[in-house]
Design the sequence.
């Protein structure tokens, strides 16, 4: 069997990577939400200009 490196077996590193991944997903969701909200505001503003 191949010997595992310290990088693969360190529980602190594994927990940190998992935490970073969860935080990254949260940030991406917030960014997408803000972009959608801005798009809706722009659409409403455009409709208001035409009407």
Sequence:
């Amino acid at each position: 069997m191949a010997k595992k490196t310290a990088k693969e077996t360190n529980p602190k590193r594994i927990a940190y990577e998992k935490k970073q991944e969860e935080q990254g997903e949260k940030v991406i969701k917030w960014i997408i939400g803000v972009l959608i909200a801005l798009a809706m505001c722009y659409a409403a503003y455009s409709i208001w200009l035409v009407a």
User: Anything to note?
Assistant: Residues 7 and 13 are 7 Å apart (CA to CA). Helices lie at 6-9, 11-50. The first helix runs from residue 6 to 9. DSSP finds two helices and no strands in the chain.
